[in-house]
Amino acid sequence: MCTVTFIPIRDKVFITSNRDEKNWRSPAWAPAIYPYRTGQLLFPKDSFAGGTWIAVHESGRAIVFLNGAWISHAPAKNYARSRGLVLLELIDNPDPPGLFNRIILEQIEPFTSIIYENGNLHECRWDGIRKYSKIIDAGKPQIWSSATLYSPEMAMRRDQWFETWLKLHSMASQEDILEFHRNSGDGNPNHDLLMNRNDMVYTVSITSLAIGQDKALMVYQDLKNNRQSKKELSLAKAIPLRP
Questions:
Q1: What are the strands, taking DSSP E only, across the chain?
Q2: Domain 3-234 sits in which CATH superfamily?
Q3: pLDDT tens profile 57-107
Q4: Domain boundaries, the chain
């Protein structure tokens, strides 16, 4: 839930997330398809709270979460429920951005949600007091870094790495994108994309989602256990192409 890229290429969009977690957190379960009220969902499941940080719906809509909103915050001792469960509630709705504006989020830890639906890209943030939402250009690549782990200066440095990489990878494959998420940085494990802070907090997995016209492919790299898995979800209807 800590570094996310969104990359549109031809008739696909790629959403990739590096999950940075504390060393005591138990490993997540590999991506699987689960039946929900509005259709099937594909996501890796957090074995601790049962939620997720990234998911795709058979309609083609997808959501990914990052920890925090604008600035780092001091976590409360207890929250009403996991943010990963909020994600599942949002995606199991025909209008996730609209539900974000209506849903009660008091006693939920701050988060940033990136919502892709009907060819549109929404950035929705909850800072613990207020909600913020805006539409972002879905025709341009984007990168986000979690406010809880990366200072504005670190985030800007990562933005620069991303821009440099994009100039060399205008037609990147999913493997190219995974390579960026594994190896980009300047050799400082405190803020490289594959981060490690004294083995206390580090990148435990990378999840890459490729959404096409009739299917979505999720590649999950469990770095803690050195395993990779792939899972495909057939889309119930074709998603619109970008103009």
A1: 3-9, 12-22, 29-36, 39-45, 54-57, 62-67, 111-117, 120-126, 131-136, 142-145, 196-197, 201-211, 215-222, 227-234
A2: Penicillin V Acylase; Chain A (3.60.60.10)
A3: 999 999 999 987 677 666 656 766 888 899 999 999 999 999 999 999 999
A4: 3-234
